[in-house]
Amino acid sequence: QITLKESGPTLVKPTQTLTLTCTVSEFSVRMGVGWIRQPPGKALEWLALVYWDDDKRYSPLLKRRLAITKDTTKNQVVLTMTDMDLMDTATYYCARTKVGLGYFDSWGQGILATVSS
Amino acid sequence: EIVLTQSPDTLSLSPGESGTLSCRASQSVRADYLAWYQQKPGQPPRLLIYGVSRRATGIPDRFSGSGSGTDFTLTISRLEPDDFAVYFCQHHDTSPTWTFGQGTKVEIK
User: Fold this and answer.
1) What DSSP letter does each residue of chain A carry, written as one string?
2) CA distance A89 to chain B (A)
3) Cα separation of A94 and A80, whole Å?
4) pLDDT tens across A31-43, in order?
5) Per-residue pLDDT for A11 more than 70?
């Protein structure tokens, strides 16, 4: 049973860069790790994803602000989001998928990142 | 980008009843790549259904998915207290992006 856990700052100021880390219990072949966020009381929004072979995908709406990287030696996936705004306040989840599937079958508990001055 | 619209926003049901949730796509979902998730307050989403009708591991057969093209349905039979939650659909095509619906809240009547 794979586990994922998000870590990072819970408070950032407007215009700052948010850096979140997802630590997974294993990073296997054909696996992907994605980031999905959810503003309080609102819907889920997919942000970015990286596959085991370093293939990366980004939300077209946020692509210019996002970067996703992985470090398989540490079993970690890092998401950076630049130029944070009040509207980016949300719970950020990392979740597992597999090549060719596209759905997320394991999720971390999420981390609430609040943007406030 | 495929836009998913769920209806209704809120569904009020009593335990033991059955409920039907709808998810409509702005364009045809290729190869039936449509999933459903359940989310309870303070918890991450849990995968219920993928590939339109395939139940994820450990999901009871009270949950069933159907549909094709642009119209999809999640049916919950014999509602139990634990089923009252928010449900999201997601298209999980292997195209570069993925989107979720806005959610349907199933509440106790």
Assistant:
1) ---EEEES-SEE-TTPPEEEEEEES---TTEEEEEEEE-TTS--EEEEEEETT--EEE-TTTGGGEEEEEETTTTEEEEEE-S--GGG-EEEEEEEEETTT-S--EE---EEEEE--
2) 16
3) 13
4) 999 999 999 999 9
5) yes
Q: Where are the beta strands (DSSP E) in chain B?
A: 4-7, 10-13, 19-25, 34-39, 46-50, 54-55, 63-68, 71-76, 86-91, 99-100, 104-108
The type of residue at B94 is T
pLDDT, averaged across chain B: 94
Name which of B92, B99, B101 is nearest A103 (Cβ-Cβ). Answer: B92
In degrees, rounded to 5, the angle at the alpha carbon of residue A47 between the alpha carbons of residues B47 and B30 is: 60
Q: Verify whether the Cβ–Cβ distance B92 to A95 is below 8 Å.
A: no
